[in-house]
Every structure is written in structure tokens, then in C-alpha cells.
Amino acid sequence: METPNNTHELSLYLYRVNINEHLRNTGPNNSASRKKEPLSLDLHFLMTVWSKNTLAEQMIFAWAMRQLHDHPILDASYLTPQANWDADDIVQIIPAELTHEDMMRIWDTLKPAYRLSFGYVARVVRIESERTATGLPVVATRFGWGERSELKVSSNVALEAG
Fold first, then answer.
1. What would the pLDDT profile of 76-122 be if each residue is shown by its tens digit?
2. Strands 117-127, 8-19: parallel, antiparallel or unpaired by DSSP?
3. Alpha carbon distance 50, 13 (integer Å)
4. Which of 78, 120, 147, 150 is deepest in the core (most CB within 10 A)?
5. H or E stretch covering 118
6. Rounded to 5, what percent of the chain is helix, strand, coil?
7. Which range has the worst mean pLDDT, 12-16, 37-41, 44-48, 143-147?
8. What is the per-residue pLDDT for 14?
């Protein structure tokens, strides 16, 4: 990506999407709405500054890193209402641990010459399901517990030998 003279740009390149490991096996939602649990994702970004002026590039890069360090939580005040975020939704921005090999692999794929860059993960980005849970909610059970001698089991099933 070439930039004209006196132009400074900061880019966030989404290079990987993972299902969040902590919310991957979340059980069904037992709320009255019976909606399915949302898909919880971690979005991996590469932040890069593009400028012909090296000093400006480093200053912008340091400023952007400081902003993400000082404000790592994106709440309703940062998230756009067009995406239907709930009032209690948040997205946490954390530094990503990228090995030198991973970084070079990404830049080999992008094709421009390597630029100063840093990885971040936006977690947990939730995508609501449009499906509702099937079946009715459980309202009664047919089991009990107690001391073994107190439990009585009766059966009226006859077995035929054959």
C-alpha cells in the first residue's frame, strides 16, 4: 500500500477469526425467549501505520497502541447501534502474541514490503442466532433422591424367556 506524500494512515487488517475457547460449549439459554446462544468469536487484527515519514509513522503507532492500552474495553458508548449491540455487550481488545514466523507469514501473504505492525485480538464479538430453541421448557421431573433404603422401585414389566 503506497501513501501519497504527507499522508498518514492506520489500518486494521482482520487476518483470523476463531470461536472463543471459553464460550464454545455454552449450554442452551434457559430464558423465556428460548433464543439460541450467540456465536462467540475472537477477531485477530494486525495494526499497521502507513506513512512516508518514519518519525510520523512511529508517533502514530505509539499513540494508537497507547489508546488501546488505556481503553481496552469497548462498551455501548463505542459500539455502533447499527450492529444491534445490547446495552451490556462489551468487546475487549488485548495484545496478541504473534511469533516472528507468524508475522512474516502474514506479510508474505499481503505482498507489500513489511511494515511496523502489531497484533490485537477483539474478544468476545457475539453474533446472535436467528433460530429459536426447539422443544418446550422443562416444567417437571420424574425422579427423586434420598437414602437408598428409602427409594422404592416398582416394575410391572414381565419378561418372557424365549
1. 888 887 777 778 888 999 999 888 898 888 888 888 888 889 999 99
2. unpaired
3. 13
4. 120
5. strand 117-127
6. 20, 30, 50
7. 143-147
8. 92
Structure confidence by residue, pLDDT tens digits, 129-143: 776 656 666 676 676
Strand partners, 40: 126
**Residue ranges per domain, the chain?**
8-133
91 contacts 20 by C-beta, under 8 angstroms: no
Query: Does the pTM exceed 0.90?
Result: no
- Cα separation, 48 vs 27, in Å, equals 38
Amino acid letter, residue 114 = Y
Let me know: does 63 contact 49? Beta carbons within 8 Å.
Answer: no
14 contacts 45 by C-beta, under 8 angstroms: yes
The CA-CA-CA angle for residues 9, 103, 75, to 5°, reads 55
**Rounded distance between C-alpha atoms, residue 119 and residue 101, angstroms:** 13
Contact 112, 1 (CB under 8 A): yes
Nearest to 77 by CA among 91, 95, 93: 91
Q: Burial-class residue 107 by CB neighbours within 10 Å (0-12, 13-18, 19+).
A: middle
- Find all residues with CB under 8 Å of 56, minimum gap 6, and list them: 8
